């Protein structure tokens, strides 16, 4: 697989999450980009405690296998070969301040280690990903309970839309939005990620560390 040139993310792709933050539902996918320097693993999950509240946003991530530019949803669906769960770390206090000032979100969303990926999983049919369920437990308590069929813009349509805005290169990652239940993390928290995808039931764990 080629090196990742960018991570394209979508905001407010679940109506309940938009509502919990008192945000309007967008009329088209709300896109932003994280750089490759934001990538990290569950084992290396670290939060910058000196920058205020850092929230977890659990999402399904897919990886592009073929170059995509101005494609339709059917082509997009055939051009995705791997998926996993991701945690989009968000500095909520920083984001709220930036939004109030009408400024971009990069400081809140694109910092080092802000895109946490579980191990990639191959799949044969995107429908198995689109019809999956996923959960995040924090210290044993269910925080996020996602059903991918509730996405406002399904994965294939989302990737096709993105390809008309940014050319997607092989290796690029798309984060597909977070369901309701986002909340703050603290150093020492234990996280459990669960993913039910067709006959596969996957589980990972992580412990939140402080970033130097």
Describe the protein's architecture and organization.
By secondary structure, this protein is of the alpha+beta class. The chain has one domain (7-210): Fumarylacetoacetase-like, C-terminal domain (Fumarylacetoacetate hydrolase, domain 2), CATH 3.90.850.10. It is built from 6 helices and 17 strands. The chain has helices spanning 15-20, 73-78, 92-100, 106-109, 126-130, 155-163; strands at 7-11, 30-34, 39-41, 46-47, 54-56, 58-64, 80-88, 90-91, 115-117, 121-122, 133-138, 141-147, 173-175, 183-184, 190-197, 200-207, 209-210. The strands form 4 sheets. Strands 1, 2, 3, 6, 7, 9, 10 and 13 form an 8-stranded mixed β-sheet that branches. Strands 12-11-15-16 form a 4-stranded antiparallel β-sheet, with no helix packed on it. Strand 15 and strand 16 form a beta hairpin.
CATH class: Alpha Beta
> Uncertain regions: pLDDT < 50 for 5+ in a row?
none
CATH superfamily heading: Fumarylacetoacetase-like, C-terminal domain
Shape: globular
Helix coverage percent of residues?
10-25%
Counted by DSSP, the helix tally is 6
What gyration radius follows from the Cα positions, in whole Å?
Answer: 16 Å
The second-level CATH architecture is: Alpha-Beta Complex
What number of structural domains do the residues give? 1
The average pLDDT is 95
């Amino acid at each position: 697989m080629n090196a990742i040139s960018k991570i394209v993310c979508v905001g407010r792709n679940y109506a309940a999450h938009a509502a919990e933050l008192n945000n309007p539902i967008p009329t088209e996918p709300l896109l932003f980009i994280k750089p490759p320097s934001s990538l990290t693993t569950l084992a290396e999950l670290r939060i910058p405690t000196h920058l205020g509240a850092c929230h977890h946003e659990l999402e399904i991530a897919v990886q592009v296998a073929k170059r995509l530019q101005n494609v339709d949803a059917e082509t997009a669906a055939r051009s995705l070969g791997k998926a996993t769960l991701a945690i989009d770390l968000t500095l909520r206090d920083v984001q709220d301040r930036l939004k109030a000032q009408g400024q971009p979100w990069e400081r809140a969303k694109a910092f080092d280690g802000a895109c946490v990926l579980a191990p990639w999983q191959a799949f044969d049919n995107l429908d198995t990903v689109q019809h999956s369920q996923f959960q995040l437990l924090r210290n044993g308590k269910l925080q996020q309970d996602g059903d991918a069929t509730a996405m406002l813009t399904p994965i294939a349509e989302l990737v096709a839309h993105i390809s008309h805005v940014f050319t997607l290169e092989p290796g690029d990652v798309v984060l597909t939005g977070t369901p309701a239940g986002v909340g703050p993390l603290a150093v020492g928290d234990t996280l459990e990620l669960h993913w039910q995808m067709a006959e596969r039931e996957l589980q990972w764990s992580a412990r939140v560390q402080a970033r130097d």
